[in-house]
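Assemble and predict.
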Amino acid sequence: MYNTSESDETLIDAVKNGNCDVFGWLVARYKLALYRLMYRMALNRDDAEDLVEEAFIKAYRSIGKFEPGRPFYSWLRRIAVNNAINFLKRERRSDIRPLEYVEKTISDQRNDPVVMTREKMLAERINKAFALLPKDARVILSLKVEQDLSYDEIGKLLNIPKGTVMSRLARARMKLKKILDETEARKNEL
Amino acid sequence: MNCDLSIESLSAYLDGELNEKERSAAEIHLAVCPRCREVLNALRTIDENVRQGIFEEPSPEFSRALNRRVLDRVRVAPRRSLLRFVPVFAPVAAAIFIFIVLTETSASRRMVSIGDRVAYEEIAPRQEVHMIVPEPELILAPIPAAQRQTAKAAADRVLRAKGEQTLEASTEEARDAVGSMAISSQREAVVRAIIDTNGTIIKVATGNTLISVRDTIMEKELAGQQLSPPLIEGKKTQIYVDFSPAPDEEEDEE
């Protein structure tokens, strides 16, 4: 009856009318996009996957509050980010991690120890630097650069003024630049 | 060269978040300031780097079975479940429960006064209370034992008497007889007691049906008697009792 080409609105109407199986189409549609965002926040696969699942469950339970005509993914992302922020608070994770920890974690996550290309090496260096950022900086950079949200949207999502978004984002960019420069300098020393 | 453009403004310029006036000012400055252009380029590179960042691929289980896991969980707890109202209903239900408990408790603990007229016949049928009641020493209006009876017993007796005279005695007549005997028996001697929920006699009064006075001598005499706990609709209840001679005794006396 429903297929992958159905609009979000059609699928959501069906879910609201009690056809919960249709929600599976929405899960399939947005799980990877949400996973990328959750991965940036949690910095590990298992937590990111759990956060995605929790976000979908919460979205399903609140689907009655979803306003027709608004983008579903934005609404879902808001739920996911709030949930992830609460998760990180509960975990009481340190905002700043030692480089050794990040290097070990990310290296352990690599499944295939093939010789990496130059691009892959750069990507891994960026990942390590990203993981060294404070939590707030990681979240705001990911929302702006990867999710392409406006300052207004980020402000509403994180419940902070637009001016704070602007200053945090600038600081996050500069912090990431500094970390990358330092790791590059260390590599050259070696 | 002093730069008027802050890092925040450059970052916002990159994101297209400056208003028209701010953007024009930034572009004019960038045209003449190589240092700010260099910073802007560095910010662009940072963004490109972030976009190039690799992600650990999700597990095969996540890719294959997330839909099923989510659906399994939402089916277990349906969206329209009444449980979603628990945050609203729970305090209300708790308040109602506490109100009922307090009401019931205060009602059951209320001391029945000797002067009370507890119409427990209206709630439950009369119960038999087996108890030996001595002759009261303080009777305000002494009446021969033969005449000591409740209105109901007297009415029964009248109905029986009328039945002997005519089998066709109407119900109307019977009611009239009950009424007249009830009025006439209001001044008859009576022993009254309050029995608590455990079946212990806690207060006794003697007198007639209009005036009765606490009788501590009678109380002492009855103090040792433990009765079965009085029940009304299955609940232990403190009750008020009027004792009268048993019908058999009355007939014997007659």
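The mean pLDDT of chain A is 82.
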